[in-house]
Amino acid sequence: MKVAKVVVDVPVSSIDSLFDYEIPDELLSVVKPGVRVVVPFGPRKIMGFVIDITGSSEFEKLKPIHTVMDYAPVLTPELLNLSKWLQEETLCFRVSALQAMLPAVFKAKYEKEVWLLADEGELPFDWQILTQGREVFPFNELEESGIKASQISSLVSEGLIEIKYVVKGKNRVKKDTYIELALEQVKVIEVIEELGKQAKRQKQVLEYLIDTNGEIRLKQLMDDLGVTRAPIKTLEDKGIIRLVQKEVYRDPHANSNERTKPLPLTEQQQQVIEPVLSRIDENKHEMFLLHGVTGSGKTEVYLQSIDRVLQEGKEAIVLVPEISLTPQMVERFKSRFGDDVAVLHSGLSTGEKYDEWRKIHRKEVKVVVGARSAVFAPFENLGIIIIDEEHETTYKQEDYPKYHAREVAKYRGQYHKCPVILGSATPTLESYARAQKGVYQLLELSERVNEQALPHMEIVDMRKELEKGNRTMFSDPLVEKINDRIKRGEQVVLMLNRRGYSTFVMCRECGETVQCEHCDISMTYHRTNHKLKCHYCSDEKPMPNQCPKCESEAIRFFGTGTQKVEEALQQQFEHARIIRMDVDTTSRKGAHERLLKKFGNQEADILLGTQMIAKGLDFENVTLVGVIAADAILHLPDFRAAEKSFQLLTQVSGRAGRHELPGEVVVQTYTPEHYTVELAAQYDYESFFNREMQIRRRFAYPPYYFLVLINISHENHVKVVDASQRIANMLSQRLGESALLMGPSPSPMLRIKDRFRYQCMIKYKNRQDVDEPLEHVLNSFQKEMNKEELQLTVDFEPYYFM
Ligand SMILES: Nc1ncnc2c1ncn2[C@@H]1O[C@H](COP(=O)(O)OP(=O)(O)OP(=O)(O)O)[C@@H](O)[C@H]1O
Ligand SMILES: [Zn+2]
Ligand SMILES: [Zn+2]
Questions:
Q1: What is the CATH number of the domain that holds 415?
Q2: Alpha carbon 502 to chain centroid, angstroms
Q3: Which residues bind Zn(2+) 1 (predicted)?
Q4: Domain end position, chosen among 218, 247, 276
Q5: Shared-domain flag, residues 592 and 575
């Protein structure tokens, strides 16, 4: 008897182990590791992942697998093992880890379709009855036909059919009409000569088809020639052309046609790429930290490393933060490697993501450029993994499994014996410290490719501006410099860090602020619909006309949102053309790219935006960067506040003077004496690192200690306090020597969505000192979590403390 070891989709830790099921004979050739199955579980039927297949089981009487969901494995053996590691590393359910590696379509409600990849005649006879000439038909017809699963699976593996997943109702596999010649070219030329004068349109169509070698999208042909459907219909009726339905991949980044060639590397680039190339050649794992100032040509180093990987017939993963935010970056990979590139990011629809994933799964591409989850791309012959802007916190997933892409990359790099490059102008303290200890190999690019100095950064003390009587949000030096650029026809990038600076509503008479009823934070004024909104729970209410407390009518919104800055800016610079980029103006699909394109075409003088404009932009005409308020994140309640400010200042100033024209930066602040601002102005990463490391050491923060955060929440305040206390007691009795327990304490945001929130933090040096105690807590509280609606989450390497 064959037995399948299955991880079932029941997220309860006590049963989060492998279950044995009998494989019925008719499924023997279909059930393989990496295939999803439906199995009986108690009275229900549920989904499960097959992890392994063995010849026997220690249990008697096994239940049989009910049916299969996939006819080819959706996960590779490597990824199946990785899920085990993720489970242990992040203390998540194995099934969550497995699901995190698959595109969202597998979690949504979907239907299956059968696609014929071969001519009907090549299929077994009973199939021909079933298809009735269709190229695509619903999977349930196949199920009802009684055709054996083993036959389906062998047709899939022979490539005669494919089973596709289609999200219910939307995102269907996209098809388009193509037009092609139905006759040989010589015949068509004869036809053209015989066509009369009135048939000018028909002639045009045929000539076009000969030129384009026979096959093109109907719509494109009609657009290009400006013809209607009439001549096409006539040609079709005469049997000279044919219209066919074909699948098109939804390609959100189509339209890159020009290919770029590798640039001759600078001496520094040559030096840093060498060790990477040798690791690729030697087939050896190594973690590299590429510390390169902005504009030093890190991307070119990535591109040429990937080139080598492709030459050796291997594959590459490139992670980019929030990729939809840097269309320029995607373009650089697409224009170097063309159709070999798949792009995976959160801006894509479920269907688009599935299309991109399938290209990887079917080995149609060799490079994937994507956001965090692209680290799970199901390549089987990886030659390199690159994490650009490695300091970005988006590489850590905040939901289960709470993994960090850097650690997953390391795991996969070891498995495939290939190098991993972490690149940044401002590495995290953790990574730089590891590089100093030799855990990572440090590679440095200290100069810009164009040999320009990094732009001069001027720090403006806003307190002095106020003393001088300047009550606007723009200092005199900034105004002067912006005017100067507008006069010269150069461009300006202005950054407003929105976090901590959103518009909140306050009464000028009594100081009352409008708070969210569910979250204990200020609500934000939204001008477009004149409403107040909570950014944590999305609750909305109308803007009050008078103060709810003292009834004064002097209730106003305060703070600085990008809209407000835009208005002030327009007043100050009447004739300036301004583009505003923030969540509001970029929420529509494609808006981001459109705005950047406009700016790139110099259809605007000033690009005003939130931190989303700090990264990756490369515009040659930008010679001035302004930071409106550097203090905004410097004072967040987060031990990484200084590090984040340093990173942001460095990144945004890197947008100026990247090409021929020299750049300049103006930073406005109320605390110019802060070491972060001072050292950022000198681009002195080393000194900042040393200074900040002293602080981290003094307060026992990373990289000196690891952190794990335990969040506890409940709708009842008393219950959450009680549970937190019991958890803390349990932990303190069990924690190992290196571990320090802090708390329990109320979270900085005490209430979100009507739940009260408490937290405990553990600082530790050895993972063994916390693993057992945490598992013990999770197991002991399992019942309360199920019954009492207590929520308990464990977050290793936390980035979010609110
Ligand atoms: N060897 C080279 N020769 C000529 N130009 C180069 C070379 N390498 C890179 N460049 C160009 O220099 C500019 C900056 O390079 P790139 O964007 O790769 O730097 P980066 O380090 O990735 O920058 P950032 O971190 O600021 O995004 C780009 O316009 C790029 O095309
Ligand atoms: Zn009031
Ligand atoms: Zn709220």
A1: 3.40.50.300
A2: 25
A3: 507, 510, 547, 550
A4: 247
A5: yes
Q: Which of 76, 100, 124 is the last residue of a domain?
A: 100
Please report whether residue 802 resides in a domain.
no
Max CA distance (Å), the chain: 96
Taking the centre of ligand 2 as the mean of its atom positions, its distance from the CA of residue 629, in whole angstroms, is 28
| Residues 300 and 383 grouped into a single domain | yes
DSSP 294: T
Cα 355 to the center of its chain, rounded Å: 16
* Domain enclosing residue 648, as ranges: 456-501+560-694
Same domain, 660 and 744: no
Q: Give a yes or no: residue 530 inside a domain.
A: no
Rounded CA gap, 181 and 242, in Å?
6
Please write the tens of the pLDDT for every residue from 374-416: 999 999 999 999 999 999 888 999 888 999 999 999 999 999 9
For ligand 1, atom 18, name the residue with the nearest CA.
Answer: 297
Nearest ligand to the C-alpha of residue 522?
3
Task: Tell me the H-state helices in 405-556.
Answer: 405-416, 429-437, 462-467, 476-488
Strands 524-526 and 36-41, how do they pair?
Answer: unpaired
Same domain, 36 and 182: no
Ligand 1 atom at shortest distance from the alpha carbon of 299: 18
423 Cβ closer than 6 Å to some ligand 1 atom: no
Locate 107 and state its tokens.
């979690």
Using CA atoms, how far apart are residues 569 and 209, in angstroms rounded to an integer? 53
Burial environment of residue 470 by CB neighbours within 10 A (0 to 12, 13 to 18, 19 or more): middle
Residues 409 and 474 in one domain: no
Does residue 300 fall inside a structural domain?
yes
Contact 667, 659 (CB under 8 A): no
pLDDT tens for each residue of 326-383 = 677 788 899 999 889 999 877 777 778 888 998 999 889 999 999 999 999 999 999 9
* CATH number of residue 749's parent domain: 3.30.70.360
Question: What pLDDT shows up at residue 269?
Answer: 97
Preceding amide of 703 cis, omega within 30? yes
Indicate if 604 and 467 belong to the same structural domain: yes
Q: What is the token pair recorded at 486?
A: 């507008």
330 and 377 housed in the same domain: yes
The answer on 372 and 468 residing in a single domain is no
- Residue 263 CB less than 6 A away from ligand 1: yes
CA of 554 to the centre of ligand 2 (A): 7
90 class by beta-carbon count within 10 Å (0-12 exposed, 13-18 middle, 19+ buried): buried
* Residue found by looking up tokens 């031990």 in the block: 639
Ligand 1 mutation pick, 300, 390, 665, max ligand atoms within 8 A of CB: 300
Q: What residues form DSSP beta bridges with 531?
A: 526, 542
Asked whether residue 321 is assigned to any structural domain, the reply reads yes
Whether the complex's predicted ipTM surpasses the cut of 0.90: yes
**Spatial CB neighbours of 732, under 8 Å, sequence gap ≥ 6:** 741
